[in-house]
Amino acid sequence: MNALTALTSRVVVCNKRSNILREGDPCETIYLVRTGWACRHTILPDGKRQIISFVIPGDLCNDHGLLSKHMEHCIDTLTPCEIGVISPHQFLDMLNQHPRISRALYWSGLVTEAMLRERIVTLGRRNATQRIAHLFCELLLRLNAAGLAQNHRYELPLTQGDIADTLGLTIVHVNRVIQTMRTMGLIKLKSHVLEISNWDSLTALGKFDLRHVNGLTGNDDRTSTAQQLHWSPWPEGLASVH
Amino acid sequence: MNALTALTSRVVVCNKRSNILREGDPCETIYLVRTGWACRHTILPDGKRQIISFVIPGDLCNDHGLLSKHMEHCIDTLTPCEIGVISPHQFLDMLNQHPRISRALYWSGLVTEAMLRERIVTLGRRNATQRIAHLFCELLLRLNAAGLAQNHRYELPLTQGDIADTLGLTIVHVNRVIQTMRTMGLIKLKSHVLEISNWDSLTALGKFDLRHVNGLTGNDDRTSTAQQLHWSPWPEGLASVH
DNA sequence: CGCTCCCTTGATCCGAGTCAACAATCGTGG
DNA sequence: CCACGATTGTTGACTCGGATCAAGGGAGCG
Hints:
By secondary structure, chain A is of the alpha+beta class. Helices cover 40% and strands 21% of the residues of chain A. The first copy, chain A, has two domains: 2-102, Jelly Rolls (Sandwich); 126-217, Arc Repressor Mutant, subunit A, CATH 1.10.10. A four-stranded antiparallel sheet of chain A has the order 2-6-4-5. The longest helix of chain A has 27 residues, at 99-125.
């Protein structure tokens, strides 16, 4: 993703808890989060919020935005963020000239979709404890892949309200479950740093299954057919594959 | 999608409630559902099932499967299905030679992702009544777009158990909610045919918001930037755009 | 120093789950 | 065409996980 960083013509600094993109906003410009966390979310008519996914350093806010004229959901920062701005022209040029990045981007789109599906499973069929355990495990893997976690420990800038709105729970209940996890010695969570003290127990508690985040672990076994066929998912045709 | 149909070298007929693709299966081959319904789902270790999405006539079972070596979830038929089989070579050739279909496919991928996000909102922040109302409305629009519904009426081959596993509810509760909707005169549901008798009330009940299924309604306002830039999402580079 | 979020805990309530029994429908083979 | 077993739908009684309401306590910050 460093090549993407190089592309950013300018960097915008956003305050904590501020709005990057609002539902209905035009989205020609590509935004790359360089530091900080953001989240996609929807506000329902009755004021309830559902967080759909998190955007962490290295992620694009609207990677396939090029085909959509308008945003379908909001993106807000959770922490102060540095956001790189990429013009559509630059972005498309990059796609054409750097097939490897193109493929990495497409790949990350697939991982994103897999995470959305897994979230659906979580919300549909797991209880509060499993949901929270699952989220903590998933974030560890993801942040690990981004180099933002060391030995089962990472910065977690979410409030308990954010966690509640991610997992379809209430603040109060999230708090109680986290308390239990603390007293069980599974996690330490203090001033927005999470440490998973007992990975095995936590994964067991959350029925966390590594298969679904395979794309994050590095030891994925995919991309055969397309590569065999010298096929590139994105580019214009100017790109020579492999 | 007719051009896709033409591509299918052979057609497989599957029984009702049979397995098309299993988690971990290799997925080089592309499967196009020509008639019948199928669903993506996951079975959890404790035996619970979560249905992730429905596959209806015209949909591909594994469109971006070309980049994944293995399936990450199962696909089962819900009704008897005729499934067209497309080899990866044929598929890629098509992508190169028919940029319009390519774009339509990419577009449908975006719509799919939007539906996944909307399902997350449903599961996270809507109650049982809203979930069911929402599902019925969403399916009407989707089937309408596929020409499979006429005046607020369509074939719904789901059992109440399927609906429960889609919406994170139990069979019993789904049944009670549907009963209520019937007695309120909102819907008629009998021998797998659903009629929405009172669209306005049902959408109000489900807080159903047309924005999120915009891609289905035909009057979408997207694809500007990419088209202006003569950019095609998929192809090899052999494709000349528009 | 005082506000404003955020976290924490208790008491109570309710939407949806569980358990159980039975009716209706469907499909299949005799 | 009917009989039988197997799904699917329906309803009631009861339970429970998580929501709601309410009240303090802490921590960051201007």
